[in-house]
Design a protein that fits this description.
heterodimer, A: 308 residues, mainly alpha, two-stranded antiparallel ribbon, B: 379 residues, alpha/beta, Rossmann fold, 2 domains, four-stranded parallel β-sheet, 18 strands, globular, TAT_signal (chain B)
Chain lengths: 308, 379
């Protein structure tokens, strides 16, 4: 077996590589949404924020030549979208789901409008760290070339998991998410907390978008997202609002998404549409297996409109 | 107070309704007496694209053709991008006809033809519609409809010649969207071109299932390179992601739809490009001259419907010589990519000894097989 022929080993390797490459936007959007939902609001607009973040990052990177400035701009744009959602939703009678859908369409439309001149130019990519140096197989090296954002995402998941339990800010967030009345009794303003939580969630979604346009697949087109932002919102429920669960679910989705192309590349060519549906079938199976008619979802914030 | 406010709001709404009704009436009037008819030279041509018109791919190729029409005196061009292959495209066509006075419309995406364009053909019998890629049939379809396409499989054959010389692993890769006849012909042509250099070469194909799925296209490209393919081409709407990913992994690229060499100048061998400017100018010239437009238009390299990107710096002298020789052969017209004896990749004979399908053979437009040497499946 020479170095270029890896045969069937290509499948697990592609799934590992795919999990690392494809999962990062899922990680950031779902962690952001986990923060927002823990505060008792749901922001469905993160798909629009993701697309707008992708456009902003690419545009700023093209204009300044620095992908890091692009990343910063995407986070700032995401923050604005999140704060806007949080601000509107504080008014009585405003439905956070409806506002989210409106912002999803608005974000995508605005991104298409401003993104027109940036489809053609090439932007500098975010750097990757080669962890595959120990291997002389080029495929392994390619699979283990890990972008810094993935590592930041992993660290952030652990940090949030710890912070939700062990910090004052985490406690405030959870109180507001579980009972507005209790929060008010403690002297907290639920609207302010939710405003900040939604803003932070938006900023993380913007970073997820920056990964799409600045690293993988690494270009700005209007079809860049194929629904990652929406899927990530679903992942949060799937992960039971647990940041570590979000990280694992994102990896699972990334790896399952790589299954279809990898199987075709080793000659399993029949029924690729079924393989492409693998992530969704997997979700359905796990949701059904863990659901129960007699109790509500474990870990669901009490103030969340979808579970109330 | 509130009541008065409501009243005034209702009144103003009524005003608004009145003015918009007047506007609609005006629009109707101009629709029944199109302004363009008043000036003999004025002609408005409508173009509808399924994606952004600067996508380094399918839509850009059409938009470049449309742009050349703008230079013609008396011709104005209206364009709409990102129109889905749904009833939306009917609305786009209607507004181009009613509001812009378009008398010739090019809906450029495959799914626009049936039922959307056909419905508009029946509704506006005075407007001419020409569709890219569809199969117009005089028994089934109206005379103000028509279709045009180019034999770009020839270009993929030439891509294959360049790829056959460049590959060291004897394995080349193809990222394809959907297994429809045009895509299958391109895959087969790419492999057969490469096999004209070395008959042991195989081609691995990965179908993504959609015309534009950036992440999946990148994954497919990575999977092909992981399995040892060292020259990659594609048939998706926007090859930008495939080109950049493949070049990033060190593979050579053959382009498609438009010239992608600026994205990877060192790795780009050549590419099969559309030359729609020629086709669109032909239709417009006919219309201005008052001649009936052809309903079924096809052409290849010799007719100028298709062209090749300039050869890149990585193309060897031997490859250049064979490329130029094959190109010269094709420029005579009537080249056959599919010629017997040839089997499909399931072992069935698709062309017997001595049987040839020239570029214009209508059978090629209903191709449903991958030839021997292609690793992949049509379903």
């Amino acid at each position: 077996m020479d170095a270029t022929e890896i045969g069937l080993w290509g499948v697990p390797l592609a799934m590992l590589g795919g999990a690392i490459r494809v999962s990062t936007p899922f990680i950031f959007v779902s962690l952001g949404e986990a923060i927002t939902e823990r505060s008792g609001r749901i922001n469905l607009g993160l798909e629009g924020t993701l697309v707008f973040g992708a456009m902003t990052a690419y545009a700023v990177a093209v204009m300044t030549g620095s992908p890091w400035l692009g990343l910063l701009a995407a986070a700032a744009a995401g923050l604005c979208f999140g704060l806007f959602h949080g601000w509107i939703c504080k008014f009585r009678g405003v439905n956070d789901i409806a506002i989210g859908i409106a912002l999803m369409l608005f974000g995508s439309g605005l991104a298409f409008f401003f993104g027109k001149p940036f489809i053609q130019p090439s932007a500098p990519d975010l750097p990757a760290i080669p962890f595959g140096g120990w291997s002389d197989v080029p495929q392994v090296q390619a699979a283990l070339s890990v972008n810094v954002l993935f590592l930041i995402g992993a660290a952030l998941a652990v940090f949030l998991w710890w912070a939700f339990r062990n910090t004052r800010a985490g406690l405030i967030l959870r109180v507001v998410g579980d009972s507005s009345d209790a929060a008010r009794a403690m002297g907290l303003n639920p609207n302010t907390v939710r405003l900040l939580a939604t803003g932070l969630g938006g900023a993380l979604a913007g970073i997820g978008g920056a990964y799409l346009s600045l690293y993988y697949p690494g270009s700005w087109t209007e079809g860049i997202s194929s629904g990652q932002g929406l899927m990530a919102v679903a992942l949060v429920i799937f992960a039971r609002w647990n940041p570590l669960g979000c990280f694992a679910a994102a990896l699972l989705f990334g790896g399952a998404g790589a299954l279809g192309p990898a199987l075709q590349s080793v000659g399993v060519t029949q029924g690729y549409y079924l393989f492409y549906a693998a992530p969704y079938i997997l979700t359905l199976v796990i949701m059904i297996a863990t659901s129960s008619p007699s109790r509500s979802l474990a870990g669901a914030p009490g103030e969340l409109s979808i579970t109330k | 107070m509130t009541e008065r406010f409501m009243l005034s709001r209702r009144l103003s709404r009524r005003e608004l309704l009145k003015t918009s009704a007047a506007g609609a009436a005006l629009g109707l009037a101009s629709a029944s007496f199109p302004i363009s008819r008043a000036f003999a030279a004025a002609l408005t041509v409508g173009f509808i694209y399924v994606g952004p018109k600067d996508d380094y791919g399918y839509n850009q190729a059409h938009a470049e053709g449309a742009a050349t029409l703008k230079a013609i005196e008396g011709v104005s061009v209206v364009e709409e991008e990102n129109v889905p292959e749904t009833v939306d495209v009917q609305k786009s066509m209607e507004s181009m006809i009613n509001l812009d006075g378009a008398s010739l419309i090019f809906p450029t995406s495959f799914g626009y033809f049936d039922p959307h364009m056909l419905a508009m053909c029946a509704k506006f019998p005075d407007v001419q519609f020409r569709h890219c890629g569809g199969m117009w049939n005089k028994d089934k379809h109206p005379m103000n409809a028509g279709s045009y396409f180019g034999y770009i499989g020839l270009g993929q054959y030439l891509n294959g010649v360049a790829a056959g010389h460049a590959t060291k692993t004897k394995k080349i890769g193809f990222v394809a969207a959907k297994p429809i006849p045009q895509v299958l012909l391109n895959i087969n042509s790419f492999l057969l071109g490469a096999r004209s250099v070395d008959p042991t070469i195989t081609c691995q194909v990965i179908f993504t299932g959609e015309w534009s799925l950036a992440v999946k296209e990148a994954e497919a490209t990575n999977a092909l390179v992981d399995q040892g393919a060292d020259v990659i081409t594609c048939h998706v709407d926007s090859p930008k992601v495939v080109v950049e990913t493949a070049a990033g992994r060190g593979a050579f690229i053959c382009g498609y739809h438009a010239n992608q060499s600026p994205l990877a100048p060192e790795k780009y061998l050549t590419g099969a490009e559309w030359n729609w400017a020629k086709v669109y100018k032909m239709f417009v010239d006919d219309l201005v001259a008052g001649k009936p437009l052809p309903n079924f238009t096809r052409g290849g390299l010799a007719d100028g419907f298709v062209k090749m990107s300039p050869l890149g710096p990585a193309v060897s002298e031997a490859a250049r010589a064979q490329f130029d020789g094959t190109l010269a052969e094709m420029m005579k017209g009537g080249f056959s990519v599919i010629k017997g004896p040839l089997k499909n990749n399931k072992g069935d004979v698709v062309a017997t000894e001595g049987q040839t399908f020239v570029e214009a053979a209508i059978e090629l437009e209903s191709m449903d097989y991958l030839v021997e040497g292609v690793v992949g499946s049509t379903a």
